[in-house]
Design a protein that fits this description.
heterodimer, A: 146 residues, alpha+beta, three-stranded antiparallel β-sheet, B: 379 residues, alpha/beta, two-stranded antiparallel sheet, 11 strands, globular
């Protein structure tokens, strides 16, 4: 069985595809399910990436998934007030933040344990894993003391 | 490079919500109007570029060009199609290229098809991120954080453009004034955007015909010349971690367009900038250097983008208050102004225009293509 076929039959693949994701991200989602937060890193220059990427300098020469701190700061955010789909009708308003991770990459997340109107740019946050109805375990972020 | 080509035909169909016409009929009407405008027969069109994907337009319209190209780089497609038309003319593949858009965007609500507002962008959908408003809101929030831009500043963009639309028959905002109080009272969509910060989907078509400058002069009294053009993709700013500081990757696009035109910012009489949301023209005016970094909000509040300001911007009401024919909204308005056909909204000074488009947001990285061009009344 080819690598590609194996990815297609992976139990998380359907959920990953549903959200426009890539088989190359499967190691990330597997790690989430066991409670760890990874980033894709180039071993040559130590640039970190999310999602799976080719390094802007070194391509895929030395890309590998590595454990990351799971810490960052809210870089920008929005609060969704309009429900674009029926399944979000009961959850608005809710915040979506873009977290800048300590290692550099951005990661979109809700901010747990924080009222939607208390989210602020610069707020220090940390990762916490949470089950999602898609079957994936997804990283979420919550405020942390500095 | 400068003035190799010109726009000789402009077709604008009815524009509005629920027109009851299919996209291809809107495109066919736009092409017919553009041909009539240029005084050209149907078989003069020997190149066809459709904004977005096409299979059947040619038969439906009775066209027989040398090629039909489907082009998709989101809202940057219209400007990009004109750049490509010039390149194809220069490559000897056509003499008259039709660049065409026509969609029944508002029909989604009727047919149950998801509309543009429900676009999803990859993994962030896991967290409830849907719609172009939210992806542009990230830029707006960052701008507010860095420069103290306020919701009232965004309101000033909406009102500036509505004031233009007030004088423009056939637009959504025609004869419907908007006040700052109404803007502030309108419901929040994706913070910091309220309803009046967002463009609504409309139906409509626009076509332009691009030919050589030489042929343009023999065809019509008032060709609109393509003086320079540029492109830039914001992915480079994702790589640098600066994507939210940069609404578009304007720098390389601006450099090429102005170098080709042999012009500077001071030579531009008006700007027609892609404006799905109020933050968009505000940040582009800064990026092009019409105003200082972070000064876009106060600039709008003081009327700087109005008809008597230093750079009249989106002078037909733009997407926000006129109609959404993707990047063709700005192209069409620039052509009308440069030909002196903008009616009561005609600017006093209208020799040159900067037009931009952006689009094709690709996913997690929240980046899109940008294309701009400088159009002029004189070659």
């Amino acid at each position: 069985m080819s690598t590609q076929d194996a990815a297609q039959q992976h139990p998380l693949m359907q959920a990953v595809r549903r959200y426009g994701g890539d088989p190359a991200d499967l190691p990330f989602w597997e790690a989430c399910a066991s409670g760890s937060f990874l980033l894709h890193r180039c071993g040559k220059c130590e640039r970190h990436y999310w999602p799976a990427s080719r390094c802007i300098e070194h391509g895929d020469e030395a890309m590998a998934w590595v454990p990351a701190s799971g810490r960052g700061q809210v870089y920008t955010y929005t609060v969704m007030h309009r429900a674009y789909t029926p399944d979000t009708r009961d959850s608005v308003p809710f915040a979506i933040a873009v977290v800048q991770l300590e290692e550099g990459p951005f990661y979109h997340s809700n901010i747990l344990d924080c009222p939607f109107d208390a989210v602020a740019v610069g707020m220090p946050v940390e990762v916490v894993m949470q089950p999602h109805e898609s079957g994936l375990t997804i990283p979420q972020f919550r405020p942390r003391a500095e | 490079m400068r003035s190799a080509c010109a726009i000789v035909g402009l077709g604008i169909t009815g524009q509005g919500v629920g027109l009851g016409l299919e996209g291809r009929e809107l495109r066919a009407q736009a092409v017919d109007l553009a041909l009539a405008d240029a005084g050209l027969p149907r078989d003069a069109i020997d190149g066809y570029i459709r904004a977005y994907v096409d299979r059947e337009d040619l038969r439906y319209m009775g066209l027989s060009p040398n090629f039909s190209v489907s082009m998709m780089t989101g809202g940057a497609t219209p400007v990009f199609s004109i750049i490509a038309a010039q390149a194809l003319v220069e490559a000897g593949q056509a003499q008259v290229v039709a660049c065409v858009y026509g969609e029944a965007q508002s029909a989604g609500a009727i047919t149950g098809k998801p509309d543009i507002g429900s676009y999803g962008y990859g993994y962030p959908m896991l967290y409830g991120l849907l719609g172009a408003a939210a992806t542009h809101a990230f830029h707006a929030r960052r701008h507010m954080h860095l420069y103290g831009t306020t919701s009232e500043h965004l309101g000033a963009v909406a009102i500036t453009q509505r004031d233009y639309a007030l004088k423009r028959p056939g637009t959504l905002g025609y004869g419907k004034p908007l006040t700052l109080a109404e803007h502030q009272a309108s419901p929040m969509i994706a913070d910091p955007f309220r309803r009046y910060d967002c463009t609504r989907n409309t139906d409509g078509g626009v076509a332009v015909l691009v030919t050589t400058a030489e042929r343009a002069r023999s065809l019509c009294a008032n060709p609109v010349y393509l003086l320079g053009a540029g492109t830039g993709h914001n992915i480079v700013n994702w790589h640098k971690g600066l994507v939210y500081e940069n609404h578009d990757n304007v720098a390389p696009a601006k450099a090429r367009a102005f170098a080709q035109a042999g012009m500077g910012i001071d030579d531009i009489d008006m700007a027609q900038l892609y404006d799905p949301f109020t933050i968009s023209p505000l940040m582009q005016l800064e990026a092009f250097g019409f105003v200082g970094e972070g000064q876009g909000g106060p600039f709008y509040a003081e009327g700087g983008a109005g008809p008597d300001g230093s750079i009249p911007t989106n002078t037909g009401g733009g997407q926000l208050s006129a109609y959404y024919s993707t990047g063709f909204t700005g192209v069409a308005e620039a052509v009308l102004q440069l030909r002196g056909e903008a009616g009561e909204g005609q600017l006093k000074k209208s020799e040159t225009a900067l037009v931009s488009g952006h689009g094709m947001n690709a996913g997690v990285q929240n980046t899109w293509a940008h294309a701009c061009m400088i159009l002029g009344r004189n070659p």
